[in-house]
Amino acid sequence: MNQPTAQESGAHDGIRIITTGGTIDKIYFDARSQFEVGDPVIGHVLEEALVKHPWTVQELMQKDSLEIDDADRLRIREAVQSAPEKRILITHGTDTMAKTAEAIAETGDRTVVLTGSLSPARFRSSDAIFNIGAAFAATQCLPAGTWLFMNGQVFKAGDVKKNLDSNCFEAL
Amino acid sequence: MNQPTAQESGAHDGIRIITTGGTIDKIYFDARSQFEVGDPVIGHVLEEALVKHPWTVQELMQKDSLEIDDADRLRIREAVQSAPEKRILITHGTDTMAKTAEAIAETGDRTVVLTGSLSPARFRSSDAIFNIGAAFAATQCLPAGTWLFMNGQVFKAGDVKKNLDSNCFEAL
Amino acid sequence: MNQPTAQESGAHDGIRIITTGGTIDKIYFDARSQFEVGDPVIGHVLEEALVKHPWTVQELMQKDSLEIDDADRLRIREAVQSAPEKRILITHGTDTMAKTAEAIAETGDRTVVLTGSLSPARFRSSDAIFNIGAAFAATQCLPAGTWLFMNGQVFKAGDVKKNLDSNCFEAL
Amino acid sequence: MNQPTAQESGAHDGIRIITTGGTIDKIYFDARSQFEVGDPVIGHVLEEALVKHPWTVQELMQKDSLEIDDADRLRIREAVQSAPEKRILITHGTDTMAKTAEAIAETGDRTVVLTGSLSPARFRSSDAIFNIGAAFAATQCLPAGTWLFMNGQVFKAGDVKKNLDSNCFEAL
Q1: Engineered SS bond to A146: which of A39, A40, A112, C73, CB 3.0-4.6 Å?
Q2: Is residue B140 packed enough to be buried (19+ CB in 10 Å), middle (13-18) or exposed (0-12)?
Q3: Chains touching chain B at 3 or more Cβ pairs under 8 angstroms?
Q4: Which fold has domain A15-171?
């Protein structure tokens, strides 16, 4: 699951999308009366949005962000560093998104944008599609470095936290 | 309809949104069996997306973009030039979006991003929410100048057209 | 388009769905800046609703109901009378739905329910899915005869009209 | 929460809706990374469906159906028996819906229809709206007794179970 397919690997000018799980991909399993991280939705979102800019999805892990540990962050960093593309979008759970952003702040000449959502993309009303659109554009517009987009705002890695009381991202 | 309200006018650090109509705002009037440009959807989209970054909506006109003429483009340019904000998002019909972008290419030190959608925001499946998210982020990320976002791609004003055969935007 | 396929024809105990067009199936064609009656949505709606009861779709015509004339009503009546199933759901535009219901009021021992919607099923907010669910249940519950379901209410054919001022169906 | 308001109580000819919780009303609380039964959605669904037939909502409890016990079933039965309306729709979780239906099979001259959904109504794709439409029509069409609508089918109380392997309702 964690290696891009041959079919995908030609798009060096495009945007690499690395998915790690989080609320954005949550789906409901009635049989277990439980919500779990499901397959990434971002491919469907990009098709629905009629995106013609080249992109490729690399499914790296399917975790709640509270379960993402330092070993996982190392894997994310390696996936970024070994990507043939210069522009990378990462979908990630919100609880530790700011921490992962900081852990991968050194990107060389790559532009990396993390995003996710506070409610699942499969909901009728969600911040997911807006955030994916925002991050997809931001990877094309921002200089090299690691960035985060949530609550309608672009943040620099290391300068953002999730405020647990307001359930919103804000600058430090 | 075309003047920002007093309540809105303080947000100089925020993003001014100028709405001009287009498919993105189309609504169905069963009584007339007709689709027409309705009230702007962008405010609802930003609320659903849990946007905390300040923004204000200025409803300038409600037109199909085929009906937008040079006098309208002058009004749009004046609205841009008289805006207190440096960052401006314009929603616009797709047929003449590239033409309007070119007509307002001189923005001084403002960053202006035009977007719209190929199907109405009120549809269950549409490029509208993705495009609004993208444009909202792009206004924060791009340098001064006029830009256009459609089909997943950031274009420079003057370097983009809508290909009527493929129904997609592409670089000149 | 107007003949059921062989694959479909075994389901005599199931519900036959005859589609005639109307707002419920309207789709937006950006290339022509126009809304037109598209392919029937009802199959997708039934799949999304996890329907296990057998059904088959017969696409009879794709018309705005204002364009449906007496020859069309004859075709609809013939489709009803030649159906192997006893339970029939018809999707139809709203403007002349009451007239068509009356024209096919004689059904022998068949239960026929007409429905449609005041806004397209492809909209995020629409009466379409609710109405299809209602009509699908009503075909199973009602005695022989022709019925109409709109605005949350079951009406008998001949005892209903669309009030053009309120844009609602009401009993005569 | 469990008493109808004075404003509601006049609609004796209408449909009483008793909500008990279940997947249909589940909402996501990001702050707790958890899905829980939220406020009933059915009022919004009926408004979106442009329902003109009178109805009133009585919020009786907000429970996963696995948590509904015999005391709860007694409360549901009492709510049915004390309702001024003859036609009653109950929304209920799916896991014990068949059991509750059986427990309230004696309704005197009332028509009672239970429904729910296998995925939350707040999802973009769900069986919820279809099922609500179906149950709303079925209460108008069926004779006195207790019924259940799921998976596109009307079942008689006592003659239906949820098949846990296929995750579908089927006749006994």
Answers
A1: A112
A2: buried
A3: A, C
A4: Rossmann fold (3.40.50)
